[in-house]
Amino acid sequence: MSSGPLQEIIAVVGSPAAGNPAQYLFERAFEAARLDWRIITCDVAIENLSACLAGSEAMGFRGCLVAGKLRRAALPLVPNASPTARFAGGVGLVERTQGGLAGHLTDGRGLVEALRTHIDPAGRHAVVVGAGTTGRAVALELALAGVAGLVMADPDETRGRAFVDDLAALQTAPAEWLPWGATLTVPPEAAIVVNATTTPLTFGELRSDVFFADVAPAAAPPR
């Protein structure tokens, strides 16, 4: 049932937006929750993102799901951003509030909650591959979840090492850099490996008890 006289509307915005399953998934979630809400998918060029967000606010949309390269571009366009969004450098969800548009990034929290149904990150060692927006959010949430240590890898060494420094500055969990190569060798103490990059890669031998999560929207999974 509706929360008011008008249906709540949420927009999925991407560039490109084709192939994004969010509308399909959320329509079924709304139905299951008996919410009379509607979701639409829009292809928005990055140079039009500011107008898009302003328009969604003007039309009273409940918010927008922001995908792909638009996430980084959305961060400076929202007056209020969550600490996770600021740390990760991107916004995945824009919410209309009384104080203006607010930006959130839930990738990391969602991944950690999913992990907990299989393995408790607390006290474990984790490897995160990819220092982009999603990788940064995942590593931050793993650190806050109490992992014993984090190892980061990224094909861009400058970006990857800068991320290790950012994590170390939080003084939550020890963070180390894993050099990029044709094959990534997972440290023997690692219990969790998260792939958050679309760059093709091959992992060295993984123990059978290592939990592997792939959160990258890649056409071909890592080998």
How many strands? 13
Fraction of residues in helix: 25-40%
* Beta-strand content estimate: 25-35%
Separation of the first and last Cα atoms: 45 Å
What is the topology?
Blueprint: E1 8-14, H1 22-32, E2 37-43, H2 49-58, E3 63-66, H3 70-74, E4 80-81, H4 83-88, E5 93-97, E6 100-104, H5 107-116, E7 125-129, H6 133-144, E8 149-153, H7 157-170, E9 175-177, E10 183-184, E11 190-195, E12 202-203, E13 211-214
Parallel strand pairs: 1-2, 1-3, 4-6, 7-8, 7-11, 8-9, 10-12, 11-13
Antiparallel strand pairs: 3-5, 5-6
Task: Kindly list the characteristics that best describe this protein.
disordered C terminus, elongated, 223 residues, six-stranded mixed sheet, 30% helix
In short:
The protein has helices at residues 22-32, 49-58, 70-74, 83-88, 107-116, 133-144, 157-170; strands at residues 8-14, 37-43, 63-66, 80-81, 93-97, 100-104, 125-129, 149-153, 175-177, 183-184, 190-195, 202-203, 211-214.
Describe the structure.
With 223 residues, the protein is α/β, with parallel strands linked by helices. The chain contains 7 helices and 13 strands. The chain has helices at residues 22-32, 49-58, 70-74, 83-88, 107-116, 133-144, 157-170, and strands at residues 8-14, 37-43, 63-66, 80-81, 93-97, 100-104, 125-129, 149-153, 175-177, 183-184, 190-195, 202-203, 211-214. A 6-stranded mixed β-sheet has the order 2-1-3-5-6-4, with helices on both faces. Strand 1 (8-14), helix 1 (22-32) and strand 2 (37-43) form a beta-alpha-beta unit. The N and C termini lie far apart (45 Å). 35% of the residues are buried. The model is unreliable at 218-223 (pLDDT under 50).
